[in-house]
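On clarity, I found the account of how folds are encoded harder to follow than it need be. For illustration, here is how one protein appears when written out as sequence plus structure tokens.
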Amino acid sequence: MDKPTILIVDDEPINLSLLTELLRSDYRVRAANSGQHALRAAITCPRPDLILLDVMMPELDGYAVLDTLRGQPETQDIPVIFLTALNDPTDEERGLEYGARDYITKPIKPAVLRARVRTQLEVKQARDFLENKNAILEAEIARRMVDNEITQQVCIRALAHLAETRDPETGNHILRTQVYVRLLAEKLAAHPRFQAMLIPSTIDLLTKSAPLHDIGKVGIPDSILLKPGPLNDDEWRIMKTHARQGFDAIERAEADVDHPVPFLILAKEIARWHHEKWDGSGYPDGLAGDDIPISARIMTVADVFDAMTSARIYKPALPMSKAREFIGDARGQHFDPDVTDAFMAVYDEFTQIAQRHPDAESV
């Protein structure tokens, strides 16, 4: 193991020689005969593990040197022991206030010097050990968080694609609506009505939750879900149950953990209420206005736009301009007026997203 490095700073050659002789058998010793030389030596590799710093030096005294060392990131943590011939207790107090770890008065007593040096180096080694352990732990925590995030995203997409396999013509619907939701949420984040709710972390959770909006379709019979023509009243009544079924499925999954999972809370909101309408005429609960969670109101616009502009087994795709016109005309009826306005403001970006991620059969 390499010997610790000690930097001795003193303007008297005799003192430098004496201190070097006392310490060189146990440590790698470097010397500087002025404050300026000390500052240069402190940032030269190998960096000193400890500095013995004379207080009374011409031009740049020990206090000024220590003040500079503490102001630089690369030297601020190097322990410093002051060396001085002064015996006034106020000088010792001043040195400790500046950040010195210890204070040795001249003439130097070899046993005291070695003991104080050894103590400060042991303290530094213990501190460095803890810092290294903390850095390792922080890196491990960060790695596990990334792993958990990836696992969570894979599970979400797997569940969403499970629903998608029941309705194979939806193609990139999950991806597009997820990007639409983020785009709308980021646009609304500056609006006074929403800025307290749509903070960056919530927008991330909302984006993560969006793919689960139609998870309840897993519970809808193929004869209804894949019917090429219009649904009759009984079939439509069954079809509408997918919103509640999605909510119930996520709630059951949530019951298996012992603490709330934020993205599942938003996923439940989206699954259950993304077919509600601003005027209260939607389903499954007939909520109106601000009683509809903002997560569901954003999802509604994204879902309707994508449904209208995508081909389905029961209908062809409509031009994007027609979807824009429909959403604009339904402002304040089907859709939250402010969410509608946000959609209009980013409509061109919606069209770019749709063109970037077309369904396979449209390529």
Remarks:
- The two ends are 64 Å apart (CA to CA).
- Residues 110-166 form the longest helix (57 residues).
